[in-house]
UniProtKB/TrEMBL annotation:
Family (UniProt): In the central section; belongs to the 3-hydroxyacyl-CoA dehydrogenase family.
InterPro entries: 3-OHacyl-CoA_DH_NAD-bd (IPR006176), 3HC_DH_C (IPR006108), 6-PGluconate_DH-like_C_sf (IPR008927), ClpP/crotonase-like_dom_sf (IPR029045), Enoyl-CoA_hydra/iso (IPR001753), FA_oxidation_alpha_subunit (IPR050136), NAD(P)-bd_dom_sf (IPR036291)
Organism: Pseudorhizobium banfieldiae
Pfam families: 3HCDH, 3HCDH_N, ECH_1
Keywords: Fatty acid metabolism, Isomerase, Lipid degradation, Lipid metabolism, Lyase, Multifunctional enzyme, NAD, Oxidoreductase
Protein name (record): Putative bifunctional anaerobic fatty acid oxidation complex protein (FadJ/fadB-like): enoyl-CoA hydratase/epimerase/isomerase (N-terminal) 3-hydroxyacyl-CoA dehydrogenase (C-terminal)
């Protein structure tokens, strides 16, 4: 029998080697066709008396990344369609669909012949759950092997047996830690936990897997044998009596109760360990079906799984523009940002010229790459040889003529129009006519900068976030005259360096910074109202933000906020900044010299390490303080999320953001907007636009006109619309009126 996605070769010892190698895919993923073929392979190997056992492996450099996004999308589409016909029947069909993978893996486990999973690379989600259902697991001793059940990061949980097999192999505490955080394991760590039987050198992977079968591997899972005991003794032991009652509180401390999928993992493990295995799988299937119906799961899967992949694959790339083979890049400005951009460019294998005013400054920029490489080598994440190769691709120089053969130039000099104008003129005097000029400005509108260019159609914004080597997002900003070629090449470059792009039209602050400063400004308002700073920071984190607004302001730099405010007043007039905000920041910077983390004091104090930062006690003296009992934390949480979401809605109404996927993905990757909501626009859609508008009007009555809903939101509320309905990213995007 032949298969589309698999090859099956049976050797003289009767061991069938099943190799998963999907055509025209860089990574194996689960689709309906793949699962159908796996079931056929199970049946065929069981029926073939010549087959004594099966080794399951991958023909690619990775094992599998888990489920395919089209399969996930089809499941939600099916649920919506069936609910319209018969809600009760829809849930039953979802239950059956949700259990397909789980019971298929159970079929492997009980087929009567030994199966061994040979894990050669990244093994995520359902792929590791398949491996757990095999009777033996061998992993390669390689940095390429990353084993994880990361489903909680997209709002769900390991629903194909993961919550039942992992705690029956590893101790409950390690199992819960792995699944509720989605952490990745090395092959050695997986072995230490009891999740993998052997770790061997990569060239011995298949021989070792076959040897397990030759050595008489029993085709029975431990939990199917009489007398099986859960590691550590199950839920009735003294250790479990300490773990399980405390686990929900610990989880709430970490997640603020915002992630139903994480809590479902605790329930599945606690209930499942008290039941026979097949019954436990049904419990898992029931909870999985419930979680799939939550707003959090739908929104997180759509934004963090589906939309992020679509944008990463070039969903916004203009049609008809040939793919660019970027062979050389120039970076002008060897400061922290420019040096970091040069590093990620070289890490992608692209030669890069790093230019600054003199050789010393350029060399200092390359030294940043040298430090990053040294850190990676020291942590075992990069070989010395790979590090040397990366560094060889970075050429520091003050000589602009070295840009004569680049495909793209990234400008990363000071946020000063005159400085940028001079750089644009120097660069355009030497680069090829076909090259694209990309400015990394974070505050200055691209259209205005492009007025200094002889070729504004080949001028575009590419806004990176700090630290560049860690932040996944890049904003690609279209000036009024930016052409399709500039957009296409910018997206090709961003994809090459493994960042996720969002495309936005030109405006002051673009998308991310507009939202970030609304978040910070709300904290200024709260301080002025007398809300204790610690409540401001904690409320923001309880709302789902990764860091509080005052901490974030320190990271951005308080004096940078001052510069941005002054520039806004100069360009847009005094009404563009609240006087009380300006007064606060002027006092922080000019009177108190509290500029943020960079000078060791801002809204927080930053003592020498290892001491931790702490809120500056003097904050309470800036304004009369309210007693904590008079402050409603839930209202603080609402204010933070609503003010950011309103700003995102304004960018849509103004035509800055035209695709809701980009607002959602950009808000999560750019500044960590409450991931459980799915992003700013999903937050509004998930709540319901009418409910959101009512809440915004209520907040406006108490806390200021900046909470007033926009005309677009009022219109959508009246019409019962959603952002993903009105601005359908898969059809003709309707512009705001």
């Amino acid at each position: 029998m032949t298969y589309t996605n698999f090859t099956v070769e049976t050797d003289a010892d009767g061991i069938a080697l099943v190799t998963w190698d999907m055509p025209e895919k860089s990574m194996n993923v689960f689709t309906v066709e793949v699962m159908d073929e796996i079931e056929k392979i199970i049946d065929a190997t069981v029926a073939d008396e010549a087959v004594k056992g099966v080794v399951f492996t991958s023909g690619k450099s990775s094992f599998s990344g888990g489920a395919d996004l089209t399969m996930i999308k089809s499941m939600f589409s099916m649920l919506a369609e069936e609910k319209a016909k018969d809600p009760q029947s829809a849930v039953q069909k979802l239950f059956d669909a949700a259990g397909r993978m789980s019971w298929l893996w159970r079929k492997i486990e009980t087929n009567g012949k030994p199966w061994v999973s040979a894990i050669n690379g990244t093994c995520m989600g359902g792929a590791f759950e398949l491996s757990l259902a095999c009777h033996g697991r061998v992993a390669a001793n390689s940095k390429a092997v990353k084993i994880a059940l990361p489903e909680v990061k997209v709002g769900i949980f390991p629903g194909a047996g993961g919550t039942q097999r992992v705690p029956r192999l590893a101790n409950a505490q390690d199992a819960l830690q792995m699944m509720t955080t989605g952490q990745s394991l090395t092959s050695q760590r997986a072995k230490a936990m009891g999740l993998v039987h052997q770790v061997v050198e990569p060239d011995q992977l298949i021989p070792a897997a076959k040897q397990m079968i030759k050595d008489g591997l029993k085709p029975v899972a431990p939990w199917d044998e009489k007398g099986f005991r859960v590691p550590g003794g199950g839920v009735w032991t003294p250790a479990a009596a300490q773990l399980f009652p405390a686990a929900p509180a610990i989880l709430r401390r970490e997640t603020a109760g915002n992630y139903p999928g994480a809590l479902a993992i605790l329930k599945c493990v606690y209930e499942g360990l008290q039941l026979p295995f097949d019954t436990a799988l049904k419990v898992e299937q029931r909870y999985f079906t419930q979680i799939l119906q939550t707003t959090e799961a739908f929104s997180m899967i759509r934004s963090l799984f589906v939309s992020m992949q679509e944008l990463g694959k070039g969903a916004r790339r203009p049609a008809g523009v040939p793919k660019t083979d970027i062979r050389k890049v120039g970076v002008v400005g060897a400061g922290f940002m420019g040096a970091s951009i040069a590093y990620v460019t070289a890490a992608a294998g692209i030669p890069v010229v790093l230019i600054d005013r003199d050789q010393e400054a350029a060399d200092k920029g390359k030294a940043h790459s040298e430090k990053l490489v040294s850190d990676q080598v020291g942590k075992g994440r990069m070989t010395k040889e790979d590090g040397e190769k990366l560094l060889s691709l970075v050429t520091p120089t003050p000589d602009y003529s070295t840009l004569s053969d680049v495909d793209l130039v990234v400008e990363a000099v000071f946020e000063d129009r005159a400085v940028k104008k001079a750089v644009i003129e120097q660069v355009e005097a030497v680069i090829p006519e076909t090259a694209i000029f990309a400015s990394n400005t974070s505050t200055l509108p691209i259209t205005g900068l492009a007025e200094n260019s002889r070729r504004p159609e080949q001028f575009i914004g590419v806004h990176f976030f700090s630290p560049v080597e860690k932040m996944m997002l890049t904003e690609v900003i279209l000036g009024e005259k930016s052409g399709d070629k500039a957009l296409a090449m910018a997206l090709d470059f961003v994809g090459k360096i493994k960042k996720t792009p969002i495309v936005v039209n030109d405006t002051r602050g673009f998308f991310v910074n507009r939202c970030v400063f609304r978040y910070i400004n709300e904290a200024y308002d709260m301080l002025a109202e007398g809300v204790p700073a610690v409540m401001i920071e904690n409320a923001a984190k309880m709302a789902g933000m990764p860091v509080g607004p005052l901490s974030l302001n320190d990271e951005v730099a308080v004096d940078l906020s001052q510069k941005i405010m002054k520039a806004s007043i100069a360009d847009l007039g005094p009404n563009s900044v609240k006087p009380e905000h300006m007064a606060l920041i002027d006092k922080m910077v000019d009177v108190l010299d509290r500029r943020g983390r960079k000078n060791g004091q801002g809204f927080y104090d930053y003592p020498p390490k290892p001491a931790k930062k702490s809120l500056w006690p003097g904050l309470k003296d800036l304004y009369p303080q309210k007693p904590a009992s008079e402050v409603d934390v839930n209202v603080l949480k609402q204010r933070f999320l609503v003010t950011i979401a309103l700003e995102a809605a304004r960018t849509v109404e103004e035509g800055i953001v035209t695709d809701p996927r980009e607002a959602d993905v950009g808000s999560i990757l750019g500044f960590g907007f409450a991931p459980y909501t799915g992003g700013t626009l999903s937050y509004i859609d998930g709540m319901g636009v009418k409910i959101f508008v009512d809440l915004a009007e209520k907040l406006a009555a108490h806390y200021g006109d900046h909470f007033k809903p926009t005309p677009l939101l009022k219109e959508m509320a009246a019409n019962g619309e959603t952002f993903y309905g009105r601005f359908d990213p898969y059809g003709d995007v309707e512009k705001a009126a």
